[in-house]
Write a structure and sequence with these properties.
GMP Synthetase, Chain A, domain 3; 2 domains; 4-stranded mixed beta sheet; 4 strands
């Protein structure tokens, strides 16, 4: 999965939009070298940046829409078509489908392993993916709802 090859750097977007200062960005980049933590995570943890602003900047960087999974309809039949590993381990959540696309929510467009797994699973089912970004909290909520749905489905099969 390759998004735009010549995209702006996230830090540049954040500074240009006035969401962080150059000093905050430079300090976070230095910390990132030491901790290997994501830049956005550092800036949010240090309260230099709000998660919603971070998501908007990521959206701009990758050209992806931001969704609120808590307020989105989830087509559980689509979620069932993908492996639990993709959803639970890789945090890629398929939640809608139309004639052309399956819409898959992700939290980290930099995660090449997760994107490749999603692409492989979709390709095996002759599906094309449209990616959207969601917050970590939304993803965790959707995963909990998925677990509940699957437990209920399994228990119904056992009755």
């Amino acid at each position: 999965m390759a998004f735009e090859k010549h995209r702006k750097r996230l830090g540049d977007i954040l500074v240009q939009k006035g969401l962080v200062t150059v000093e905050q960005l430079e300090a976070a980049l230095k910390e990132q070298v030491l901790t290997k933590e994501f830049l956005g995570s550092i800036l949010i943890r240090k309260k230099h940046l709000k998660e919603k602003d971070f998501l908007r900047a990521l959206s701009e960087q990758f050209g992806l829409a931001v969704v609120n999974l808590k307020n989105s309809y989830i087509d559980w039949k689509i979620a069932e078509e993908f492996s639990p590993s993709l959803i639970l381990d890789y945090q890629c959540f398929p939640f809608q489908k139309d004639d052309r696309w399956v819409t898959l929510a992700i939290i980290n467009p930099f995660d090449a392993w997760a994107l490749q797994k999603a692409e492989n699973e979709a390709k095996a089912k002759s599906m094309s993916i449209k990616y959207v970004i969601c917050s970590q909290e939304d993803m965790q909520d959707a995963i909990e709802r998925y677990r509940f749905y699957m437990k209920k489905k399994i228990s119904n099969l056992l009755i």
